[in-house]
Design the sequence.
């Protein structure tokens, strides 16, 4: 009825009010300015920032996983109700592995690991794809590059120096 009265099982219910005890607002990680490309051996490294979108009830830890191809200046960040909104700088660089791999796409991930007392951040994670630009070059090439050789047979390949470090070398 329009006046708020309602008959239910012999009882009259008047002017019912619902009071919400609070809203559940899931937390998020804010990761800004992640470079899409980093170069092995580069003297300039990229910075990005990490912060939360709301104050945690209790401290939460963000774990950073750069994988095998990237390196970061820190492996984790602790956020509290005092520093949650302050962006934390993270240095991002490519691992200079001295292996000729060519440019490749690799993942950088962040996840909140300590959420026992703050369910708003449970399961929160982010992922970013970063291109690692290889600074390594082969020293030699063979021509032809690919030639099938059956067992017991032989083949002739021409070895050509590619690197300037090998120019003038007597073969």
Sequence:
């Amino acid at each position: 009825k329009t006046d708020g009265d309602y008959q239910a099982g012999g009882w009259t219910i008047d002017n019912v009010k619902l009071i919400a005890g609070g809203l559940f607002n899931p937390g998020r990680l804010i990761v800004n300015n992640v470079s899409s490309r980093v170069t092995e051996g580069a003297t300039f490294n990229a910075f990005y920032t990490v912060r939360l979108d709301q104050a945690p009830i209790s401290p939460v830890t963000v774990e950073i996983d750069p994988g095998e191809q990237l390196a970061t200046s820190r492996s984790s960040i602790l956020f509290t109700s005092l520093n949650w909104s302050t962006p934390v700088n993270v240095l991002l660089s490519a691992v200079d592995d001295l292996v000729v791999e060519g440019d490749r796409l690799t993942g950088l991930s962040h996840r909140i690991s300590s959420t026992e007392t703050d369910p708003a951040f449970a399961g929160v994670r982010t992922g970013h794809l970063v291109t690692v630009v290889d600074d390594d070059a082969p020293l030699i090439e063979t021509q032809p590059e690919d030639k099938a050789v059956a067992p017991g047979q032989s083949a002739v390949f021409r070895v050509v120096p590619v690197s300037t470090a090998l120019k003038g070398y007597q073969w």
